[in-house]
Amino acid sequence: MVGAGHAGCEAALASARMGRKTLLLTMNLDSIALMPCNPSMGGPAKGHLIKEIDALGGEVGRNTDRTFIQIRLLNTGKGPAVQALRAQCDKQAYRLAMKFALEAQPHLDLKQATITHFLYEQGQDGRPAIRGVVTSTGWQYEAKAVVLTTGTFLNGRLVVGEKTQPGGRAGEGPSLGVADSLRAFGLEVRRFKTGTPPRIDARTIDFSKTEPQPGSRVPLYFSWDETARADVQLPGGRPNPVYPVSDEDLHGWRPQLPCYLVRTNERTHEVIRSNLHRSPLFNGLIEGIGPRYCPSIEDKVVRFAEKASHQVFLEPEGWRTGEVYVQGMNTSLPEDVQLAMLRSIPALEHVEIVRFGYAVEYDYVPPYQLMPTLQTRAVAGLFLAGQINGTSGYEEAAAQGMMAGINAALYARGEPGFVLGRHEAYIGVLIDDLVTRPLSEPYRLHTSQAEYRLLLRADSADLRLSDYAYRFGLIDEQRYARVLRKREQIEQTLGRLSKLIFTSSRSVESAAREVGIAPLGQMTSARDLLRRPETHYTQVAELARRVYQHEESADAEPPLPALSPEVAQEVELQVKYEYYVQKQQQLVRQAQRLEGLLIPESLDYQSIPHLRTEARQKLARLRPRTVGQASRIEGVTPADIAILMVYVEKLRAAAKAVS
């Protein structure tokens, strides 16, 4: 594993937990799992990814639970499919806790080294086959598989105003030579850009002019592994006294720090507009394309000129530190402009910057050159994960790292690869998008990109993915047994809800009124009663107890079991959204027919009659694994898919006849 960012850590842990002898190489052992941008995890779609990584036995959820200083549930006013957790972590605690997890993992070694090129030989299929890596000092490490997770370090260049310097991030040099080795293998390499905002000194903020944004007042966690909840790895004592906090912040279910909301104004925008000629984004100094959904503040002011203000969140970078991350003000403007625009905001008139914002340009490998296992098509045994694939975000990187680590471990033993479908996980959506859809900008996952998102709720990830995790040895017997018990409880409860009938008698209506349920009006099952939007499982269970469990049989088993809040919520959601879920499952079954039609790897698309030229070119370039994947390629029409299906079926029939 080359690179110890969020992708590299998950890849290394997955491989080692599968029993493979694994080596994690990084340019700096003190920068493992560093959060060079926002020290936060989660959010819409991103929080879903963390829950899925955790269900697969990954570490990011556990590590976040150990080190968060604030956690919230987002989108609570929307449906459960798009609700997601977001946590603010202690930046240094997160890094150290992940390093401890890596060091404690059997079958895993860590070493500090800079990789410059690869060892390889010619494979039986004519492709180069990876055999290891070579460091800048000439040291060689041999391996059957290599996972490359270089982040923003490939030929990285840092930009602030008119000043540039080589670097993967502030204070760290770039990775040189690897991109040339990739090109020598025939892989296309392109350029993207990302950025980060300034960090400011908390002592120079007037918090009386901010709006505190407190954490959740009820317990929330990313991981289903409860041991991480007890293993909190934060500095002891009170937080840095400069932050205004309430007793509820400090003495609730877990001590938390608020974030603080401020807003830009017309004066801020004028400072930016009058200095656009000095912005690397607008004067041509930066050529790489940046992320659409995390734009720089200068880009926002230009693109949304009609807006009078933009929200800016001041987010502490840790429990004891005075460094504050200025969320919403990514910039590469010159240092004097950064200071002037911050001081135009009322709470920040006297602010001091401790680290200036900057942009970083870096090389990436367009992911159409990958198989769905994240192995490169050009080189056997070489896997890519994270920002090298053109994605943005810690969570997207960690998800790719998880899958690349699993598949590298499988490849090393000659076992078939592991691919998640779009109906199984947001991870499946992410990777399928990467390998079938061309990137014009850094990729970020959104819930809207999942056509089966009702099946992919964040809180159902353990039910969806734990079978795979147990099969690969990524979770232990005890944890898997808990999932099986949960699944059994849900199935049994759903069965009881269907069988339990309430009449509309006076006594039943009276009992319903007492537990807060609206009049039944007619005979109804407990399942139909729970389907009502305003009715909860605890109410239905209490009504059943009052109606069916008489005093003389008080020791008898209740008509409906007492469930943990987690299981009760799952039962509720399965009942309330049952018909919508059934429709999506029907769509999945229809799509599965196309996903089940495998396309021969050596198929010559030029030989398929009546296929349009554009379709031929894109199919030959992307080489989809299935007809289903082919149907999602931009520029391939339903008519093209019909022609492809007929041709593949003919090939299959001909092969059968020969055998």
From TrEMBL:
Molecular function as annotated in GO: flavin adenine dinucleotide binding
Main location: cytoplasm
Keyword Flavoprotein: yes
UniProt: NAD(+) binding residues: 290-304
Domain tRNA uridine 5-carboxymethylaminomethyl modification enzyme C-terminal subdomain: 575-646
Binding site for FAD: G3, A4, G5, H6, A7, G8, I115, S175, Q387
Biological processes annotated in GO: tRNA methylation; tRNA wobble uridine modification
CC cofactor: FAD
InterPro entries on file: FAD/NAD-bd_sf (IPR036188), GIDA_C_N (IPR049312), MnmG (IPR004416), MnmG-rel (IPR002218), MnmG-rel_CS (IPR020595), MnmG_C (IPR026904), MnmG_C_subdom (IPR047001), MnmG_C_subdom_sf (IPR044920)
Cellular component GO terms held in the UniProt record: cytosol
Compartment(s) of residence: Cytoplasm
Cross-referenced Gene3D superfamilies: FAD/NAD(P)-binding domain (3.50.50.60), GidA associated domain, C-terminal subdomain (1.10.150.570), tRNA uridine 5-carboxymethylaminomethyl modification enzyme MnmG/GidA (1.10.10.1800)
Protein keywords: Cytoplasm, FAD, Flavoprotein, NAD, tRNA processing
Family per record: Belongs to the MnmG family.
Function as written in the Swiss-Prot or TrEMBL entry: NAD-binding protein involved in the addition of a carboxymethylaminomethyl (cmnm) group at the wobble position (U34) of certain tRNAs, forming tRNA-cmnm(5)s(2)U34.
Subunit structure: Homodimer. Heterotetramer of two MnmE and two MnmG subunits.
Protein name in the entry: tRNA uridine 5-carboxymethylaminomethyl modification enzyme MnmG
